[in-house]
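sry for the spam today, last one i promise. struct tokens for design, 478 residues
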């Protein structure tokens, strides 16, 4: 709070009453975050706190449209090139002033010690906690990018495609391009009073000449023997080995529906690297739901046994590494291969990139998704068709996201279901509603000629539709 006052982002209200117009007092509290390298103690303003009338100020605000890119799209582009480059906008929301007449909606009360009187304060900048704040902050940065798009073309493109709230997460082909982008981003944001900090890269040369205070701790310790990690949009990234890692520490808690859901929610996997693992967890949750247990009831022995194994093996995920970059500087041919599969438990899809270079052939896992089967029973062929639809949507999404970043020569979609493949390769109007609608969507997303048959034993999507425990996933070659 002292920093708010010293920065001019907050000021004392000498005569809080009477006031012209409406006012609103924000509840607030501190949150201590041990793993933060910059701000250990954060002030949280609760604009969703409801008053006597049952409404909060967030209930009355227009939140604004979504301006930022999807998290999955940003992460896919982050993997597209050889040199990773990330940075964080320091106190992004607090660098943006709001209209003075609106500040009365951002009043708080505070005292710095028990002996001080309680005073009224006014917050003068965009405040985290209001539903409209992300829109306002991102709009300002995008407007800045558009205003100087001709002067800073590299920074303009990066802010449009690689900005997620206050994080810039991107990748480029060479160290020279990384330095040019870095300098443009710094100059562009400084022109409006923003500061980029916590810079990190898979190549330290990309950050040469940068003030060490602006670099992340992992870059300062880059030459150490330990491959340190940092959080990038919720994922654990090891900059030295340029790979994604995982660390899920099981909590010693009583097994109930509440604790199982809480534990599963801690597994953050937007790219689907752990799709077989999360599918196993989803199946457990679905079984819990069908039993209609209360939140703190103990589940049956078979579920407790499965959960105990799942929880005990979570620690082995720390040995799993997935390379970040899937592209290469000298690509002769690039193919997209998607696989789908279904079982009575559910269905899934996975996409690989096959790259031919002068040094040989490389295969990289791009992304994966899985879904549990609906409670209303479906035949296996229909579930296989649902899997094909999921794959077609994923292929279309990847194609759209990587356009301009990756030249894909061919696309292939593989299924081990001859029935589903026959449906896909025929005219949609031949079939009843369920099949007709899904076949039409599949054909819109992926050309019919791209669909081929793969043996079940060779289908990597089989794991996404049946599930794996952590130890089996780490041992899997898929």
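last one done:
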């Amino acid at each position: 709070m002292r920093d708010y006052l010293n920065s001019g982002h907050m000021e004392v209200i000498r005569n809080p009453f009477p006031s012209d117009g409406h006012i609103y007092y924000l509840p607030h509290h501190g949150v201590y975050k041990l793993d933060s390298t910059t701000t250990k103690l954060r002030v949280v303003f609760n604009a969703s706190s409801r008053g006597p009338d049952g409404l909060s100020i967030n209930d009355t605000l227009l939140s604004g449209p979504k301006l930022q890119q999807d998290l999955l799209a940003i992460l896919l582009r982050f993997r597209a090139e050889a040199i990773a480059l990330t940075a964080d906008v320091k106190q992004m929301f607090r660098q943006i002033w709001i209209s003075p007449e609106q500040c009365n909606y951002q009043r708080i009360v505070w005292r710095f010690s028990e002996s001080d009187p309680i005073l009224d304060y006014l917050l003068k900048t965009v405040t985290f906690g209001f539903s409209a704040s992300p829109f306002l902050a991102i709009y300002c940065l995008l407007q800045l990018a558009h205003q100087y798009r001709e002067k800073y073309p590299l920074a303009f493109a990066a802010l449009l495609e690689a900005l997620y709230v206050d994080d810039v997460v991107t990748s480029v082909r060479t160290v020279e391009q990384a330095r040019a982008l870095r300098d443009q981003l710094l100059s562009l944001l400084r022109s409006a009073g923003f500061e980029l900090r916590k810079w990190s890269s898979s190549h330290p040369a990309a950050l040469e000449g940068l003030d060490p205070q602006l670099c992340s701790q992992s870059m300062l310790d880059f030459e150490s023997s330990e491959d340190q990690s940092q959080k990038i949009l919720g994922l654990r990234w090891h900059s030295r080995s340029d790979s994604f890692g995982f660390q899920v520490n099981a909590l010693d808690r009583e097994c109930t529906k509440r604790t199982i859901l809480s534990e599963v929610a801690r597994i953050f996997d937007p790219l689907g690297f752990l799709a077989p693992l999360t599918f196993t967890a989803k199946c457990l949750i679905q079984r819990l739901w069908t039993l209609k247990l209360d939140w703190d009831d103990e589940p049956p022995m078979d579920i407790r046994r499965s959960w105990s194994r799942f929880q005990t093996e979570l620690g082995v995920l720390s040995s799993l590494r997935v390379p970040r970059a899937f592209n290469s500087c000298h690509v002769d041919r690039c193919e997209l291969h998607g696989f789908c599969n279904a079982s009575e438990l559910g269905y899934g899809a996975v996409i690989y990139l096959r790259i031919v270079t002068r040094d040989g052939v490389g295969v990289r896992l791009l992304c994966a998704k899985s879904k549990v089967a609906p409670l209303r029973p479906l035949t296996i062929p229909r579930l296989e068709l649902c899997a094909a639809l999921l794959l077609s949507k994923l292929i279309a999404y990847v194609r759209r996201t990587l356009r301009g970043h990756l030249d894909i020569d061919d696309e292939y979609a593989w299924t081990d279901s001859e029935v589903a493949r026959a449906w896909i390769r025929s005219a949609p109007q031949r079939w009843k509603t369920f099949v007709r609608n899904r076949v039409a969507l599949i054909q819109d997303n992926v050309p019919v000629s791209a669909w081929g048959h793969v043996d079940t034993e060779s289908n990597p999507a089989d794991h996404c539709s049946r599930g794996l425990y952590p130890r089996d996933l780490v041992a899997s070659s898929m």
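Residues 83 and 174 are 6 Å apart (CA to CA). ok im logging off now
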